[in-house]
Amino acid sequence: MNHTVPVKQQAILGMSWMFFLLLIIAVPLVIRFLLVYAARYVSWDPQVYGDTFWPRRYGLLIHIAGSSVAIVTGPVQLWLGETRWALAWHRTLGAAYLLGVTVGCLGGYYLALTTRDYGWVYASGLFGLAVAWTITTGMAYWAIRRRLIDQHREWMIRSYVVTLAFVFGRLFEEVAVYLGVSDFSDVEKATVWLSWAVPLLLTEPFLQLRKFRQPMLAANPKGYRPASESPVG
Questions:
Q1: pTM of the predicted protein model
Q2: Are the C-beta atoms of 135 and 2 separated by less than 8 Å?
Q3: In this structure, are residues 230 and 15 in contact, taking their beta carbons and an 8 Å threshold?
Q4: What is the 8-class DSSP label of residue 84?
Q5: What residues of the chain score a pLDDT lower than 70?
Q6: pLDDT tens digits, residue range 195-215?
Q7: Beta bridge partners of 4
Q8: How many CB atoms lie within 10 A of CB 142?
Q9: Residues 152, 94: Cα–Cα separation, whole Å
């Protein structure tokens, strides 16, 4: 006997496994990043900032503040949008996320254009990160303004993957230390590129794989699906 699943419950059942994977990876890493790395800059201690960032501490703090807002609000508003629950809160948190990214990007552009210690490779990687963050978030905003829900969803996932560059960057640094890489300058230059370019590249195939099921979904235009056929991924 077949049972139908209401549209709202089907939205949860139909969530892609990639979305769950992103959420499961993001939440603990974000909490760890904020407690271990971001929080220490509140101390206003020159030794914490170091010679590289202390002269540019205001720009760094702007960058950290905006990034922290985006990192924290991202998972919640993605969840609300994916499940179609509390859409008013989804829009409110989406506005907060957009503001956080905007502020974070401004700080990022400033740091990229004023960096001197690690040369042009590091500066261009940081500038590229800010550009990728601007484009992915801007496209997500543009899509929702035109009510292109699917495109908005995909661009928001890309945007949050770029947002997590700060988290991934610290992980890459820790891995490099564990592997015995001693040249910190080389680590920083590699990390500033690897932290966003590689995750963004790996995200794309998973976003496109979801579209392979669209012909099957199009064959069921009523918005109902037998429970026995609910997707598992």
A1: 0.78
A2: no
A3: no
A4: T
A5: 1-19, 213-233
A6: 999 999 998 888 887 777 665
A7: 226
A8: 13
A9: 11
